[in-house]
Amino acid sequence: MTSGADHPDDRNSDSKPEPGTGTTPDRESDKRGGPGHNILLLLILMLPALKLAWTVGEGNATRDVVTAMGPANWPDIILGMLLGDAPFAALLAIVVSRVSFAYFAARGAVPRGDDRMSRARVVGVSLATPLAFGVLIGVFFGPWWALTTAVASVLLRYGVVVEYRAGRRGRHPERRGQSPAPWRRAASFGRAAALVPTVLVLPVVALADALDGRSWAPVVHCSVDYGRGPTPARLIELDRVGNGVVGWDIGAREIANGLGCAADENDVVREPWWRE
Questions:
Q1: Residue 109: its pLDDT value, please?
Q2: Measured between alpha carbons, how far is 46 from 40 in angstroms, rounded to an integer?
Q3: What Rg do the C-alpha atoms of the chain give, in angstroms?
Q4: Which partner from 58, 163, 228, 261 sits 20 to 30 angstroms from 1, CA to CA?
Q5: Bias regions of kind Basic and acidic residues — which residues (predicted)?
Q6: Are 211 and 47 in contact, with CB atoms under 8 Å apart?
Q7: CA gap 225, 24 in Å, rounded
């Protein structure tokens, strides 16, 4: 029987101290943002452009829509996608909850210590954001989505705590060889459980949302006039001006001013990418 210090995972681990720092690469990575931050940044930058390009058409159509809505309203595309897709919103909340916890823990913002008060503070810090995200998701999508989001967020955050206790993170990497085998196995499982939604599931769900052909903004039936008299049209609402709207005319494929608008319950603009 080998001792904990001779465990093969410990000898081959990539979580050895960074030279001159006394901290593990995982902790240093969390300080710099880590892969979770990179995934989130890529999604925020890429998804609005991809959503626009597929929904209204690339090239001139996308430029016209961006010009009409204004660069300041660019985040409205992400917000519209989140409000229209419960799985995407829940997954994003879960990933943000875990990534933010790892980031602040790496910078020492999470309470430490093995006494009862310190553990109670860690529990409080671990529960605050998941509960807030759970309430937010529940407001828009109902209690079951709220419960799923809150529970998953808590579990992934606790996985970060387990990694610290097992020596995978923090200023005491020597704990990796000294920690009990169940802690090491739990830390490995927690890391895998965090990578699956962050690196695999979230990007796939986000891309599916961007390419599903549904509008990110309200779709309305309006009366438009192109110089030949008022005609009915179906518009993606981009802005409200006075008693009308500025929108993308789905049929005419151009920006139009609409009057006497009524909401359209159907927000599908074109077929999803995987059906064309």
A1: 58
A2: 10
A3: 24
A4: 163
A5: 1-17
A6: no
A7: 65
Q: How is 77-129 classified by DSSP, letter by letter?
A: HHHHHHHT-HHHHHHHHHHHHHHHHHHHHHTT-S---SSHHHHHHHHHHHHHH
Task: From residue 222, give the alpha-carbon distance in Å to each of 68, 69, 88, 232, 261.
Answer: 17, 18, 30, 6, 4
Exposure class string for 210-219: b at 16+ Cβ within 10 A, else e: bbbbbbbbbb
Reading the block at residue 226, the tokens are: 């192109």
Dist. CA 12–CA 128, nearest whole Å: 36
Domain ranges across the chain: 4-210, 219-268
For the whole model, what pTM was predicted?
A: 0.76
**Joined tokens for residue 113:** 């210590």
Residue with structure tokens 């159509």? Answer: 61
CA distance 140 to 45: 24
Tokens of 242: 């006075």
Residue 239, CA distances (Å) to 8, 217, 252, 258 in order: 61, 10, 18, 10
> How far apart, in Å, are the Cα atoms of 164 and each of 50, 56, 105, 185?
38, 47, 9, 13
Residues linked to residue 255 through DSSP beta bridges, in sequence order: 248
Query: Residue 15 in 3-state DSSP?
Result: coil
**Contact between 46 and 118 (Cβ < 8 Å):** no
Distance, in Å, from the CA atom of 263 to the CA atom of 120, rounded to the nearest integer, reads 50
Do the Cβ atoms of 35 and 199 come closer than 8 Å? yes
Q: What is the pLDDT of residue 19?
A: 47
- Mean pLDDT, consecutive 10-residue segments, the chain of 276 residues? 38 43 49 60 84 90 88 86 94 90 71 67 80 95 96 87 67 54 68 83 92 94 90 92 90 92 92 88
